[in-house]
Amino acid sequence: PHVIRREDYRAPDWWVPEIALDFDLDPAATRVRAALSVTRNGDHARPLVLDGDGLTPLSVKVDGVEAQGWSLNGGNLVVPLGGGAHVVETEVEIAPERNTQLEGLYASGGILCTQCEAEGFRRITFFPDRPDVLSRYKVRMTADKARFPVLLANGDPIAQGEGEGGRHWAEWHDPFPKPCYLFALVAGDLVANTGSFRTMSGRDVQLGIWVRQPDLAKTDHALAALKLSMAWDEKVYGREYDLDVFNIVAVDDFNFGAMENKGLNVFNSRYILADPDTATDYDYDAIATVVAHEYFHNWSGNRITCRDWFQLSLKEGFTVFRDQSFSADQGSAAVKRIEDVRGLRASQFPEDAGPLAHPVRPDEYIEISNFYTATIYNKGAEVIRMMHTILGPTKFREATDLYFERFDGTAATCEDFVACMEEAGGVDLEQFRRWYTQAGTPRVSADLAMDNGKARLTLRQSVPATPGQSVKEPMVLPLKLKLFGAETGRAMGDEQLVLLKEDTSELVFENLTEQPVLSINRGFSAPVVVETNRTAADLAFLSAHDDDPFARYEAMQQLMLDTLVASVASGGTDHGAVIEAVRNTLTDPALDRAFIAEAVVLPSDSFIGDQMAVVDPDAIFRAREALRRDLGTALGDQWRAAYEGSIANRFEYSPAAKGARRIRSVALGYIAASGAQDAPQLAFDQFTGADNMTDRQGALSTLANGQSPLREQALSAFYDRYRSNGLVLDKWFQTQALSSRDDTGEVVRALAAHPAFTLANPNRARSLIGAFSVNQRAFHHASGEGYRFVADQLIALDKLNPQTAAKLLPPLGRWKRFDARRGAAMRAELERIVATPGLSKDSFEQASKSLD
Ligand code: HT7
Ligand code: ZN
């Protein structure tokens, strides 16, 4: 397959300032007529090359006349043109109902919709499908009125009318030039939850969340989140919405979370629909975050887009940083930071340490869809956050103002963004730019030594080798740190921001009156792994006294991790320090419940594995279960008190009520882990009595991990109650795939044959295959059955939906981290995938790179 390289970027040969599209919509056969006004870019004689994927031209005209001499080259339409400006018209026919890839124009539950990012537009019509070609769009759609009464596209509605034979039409114009990946249309039998928003300059914007009639009652939360996002972007970034309407449509079949098409966002329904009976607090939070994320793209992505796909993090990293800041402002900023760091460690750190590691600005790709990764999104957001930390909030805002003003209406680069930070921030970011070019998670060792009333802190950094990058240069690491007195618990001076730029650096603290304890990387100021010479007593002390909530959480996690890693190595069960630290946190009246709940959860099996040279999934599971059991038993009274003290008797979506539900679910888990006789009944009573999905699913998960006969009863009651609700059925599959029981592999293989299971719906595929492959113990079962099962499923899925299949492949690629037997079994499955006839380039790229 063809490798695309960043260094080969060339400006386009032809611009397309205007495009008129005419869709005659029909699920089986849709006619697409496109009229492109093209202008030659510079002095060259190259023909117009329009990308196409699976299209056959029914007609090609130039300036109104049937064109001569055009040809097809690998699916692309090549049209020789003589002058500097022409109108090129094409006509094609496509079949949305046969589009199982869900790229381009496709059908989902009777709705016709589009997904064009990254390269789906070329499956709809011939066009220069690259993000630096910006055009003004006029779109006309005609469709059967009974089946598709609502016709939506980007921009503002211009006109609509009746056609012949029960058909009707609508026309939409988008005045803002945009790349074709932001094109969208939707046709369906939809209803809207409508609202309006008055912008900072006093314009009224009509808002609509479009869904099928039965789902209308589940759209209030998304609409409220949209209004909050619009107000937040004005207040925090000075960014105002620019069209008269903003529409969101929810569809059930979607390869990703959502899509920021100009004025017409299309969403995976799981990020729109919520009511207390069907959505958990996690779902509610994710909806608000994703609605905000897509809305924020209107400026960071749409008004300023990417010059080429290597710059993807320009829009995605910045927009994730913006949505994280938004969500932090809506509730507990500390808990939000903990969640974001946990997510980074769960998905980005392993990616950075594995065969698919790539820089935030990659150098090459085969299939761009494979690069919508945690590195581009989440590490990219951390890179923006570090610039925010280095500049401070005021200068950072001046820098984003400059960026928005200077690059509005253009396709920009990561370099353009950093240059604005440098210029407005008055800082030199030359060395900092390595965050865009070097892959791999930096490691920092921090050793604090006392000598004669002085403390000497030695900091050393290194960046591990990654594929294609064996030698690394030192990075700029912004490390927030502070010292605390071990006896008095008092802060010894203010927090400092240290910019570590060298391989090694030393800091000296003078006139210390007591033994200091180091608090470092406070707030997770740099996305790095920190190793320190702190003792268990130091960590326990920080977990109780640090005044930075993230550092407090981190100290507890480190204490737990050190304990677990030691147990895995020695089989020992020296749990006393962790038990006391958890007791202190659990009983500290100054802490809020949401924070306590985060702080007392043990690191995941996978994260424990990430600390080991060779991952031993069974030993990790045993060590973690033993610690859970001891915590459950030793703190039995405290867990009961936390459980009983947090009974919410009427559902409310507020930070306090969410915190209560979270601690309740964590406490229930520990009560069950202790082996308490009444635990299954307690869980079952919570399951049957719950007035919300958070409590119901929390209880179901606890039962699903256990051996009680109530497990089957709860699972089948859940299935019966929600059998017609796809999003909740996903939870049913996922809960079983994540179970810690011995028989999870067999259960999951049986579920793949369940009548409600289908690979055609990405959410369903992810709920079973995706969840199972992150269940470290079950997936890595010594029999190798887990690997075989996942590979079988991915080979089948690749035929239907290559993007979704390729996204689920990385867990199989982590073979180097496991023992020789498991590693060989994983490699054998990767080889089987690579050898599959007709394999997509999506899966080929992921699997072949994973074999290296
Ligand atoms: N910008 C959107 C990316 C996206 C996407 C990428 C590949 C394949 C399908 C996709 N659907 C949406 C989503 C976002 O980051 O906001
Ligand atoms: Zn995005």
TrEMBL record:
Domain of life of the native organism: Bacteria
Keyword terms, alphabetized: Aminopeptidase, Hydrolase, Metal-binding, Metalloprotease, Protease, Zinc
Gene Ontology process terms (BP): proteolysis
Peptidase M1 alanyl aminopeptidase C-terminal domain boundaries: 537-851
Residue ranges of domain Peptidase M1 alanyl aminopeptidase Ig-like fold in the record: 440-532
Cofactor: Zn(2+)
Domain Aminopeptidase N-like N-terminal stretches: 89-182
EC numbers for this chain: 3.4.11.2
Catalytic activity, reaction form: Release of an N-terminal amino acid, Xaa-|-Yaa- from a peptide, amide or arylamide. Xaa is preferably Ala, but may be most amino acids including Pro (slow action). When a terminal hydrophobic residue is followed by a prolyl residue, the two may be released as an intact Xaa-Pro dipeptide
Gene Ontology MF terms: alanyl aminopeptidase activity; metallopeptidase activity; zinc ion binding
Chain ranges of the Peptidase M1 membrane alanine aminopeptidase domain: 226-435
Matches recorded under PANTHER family: PUROMYCIN-SENSITIVE AMINOPEPTIDASE
Annotated family: Belongs to the peptidase M1 family.
Protein name stated in the entry: Aminopeptidase N
Record organism: Sphingomonas xinjiangensis
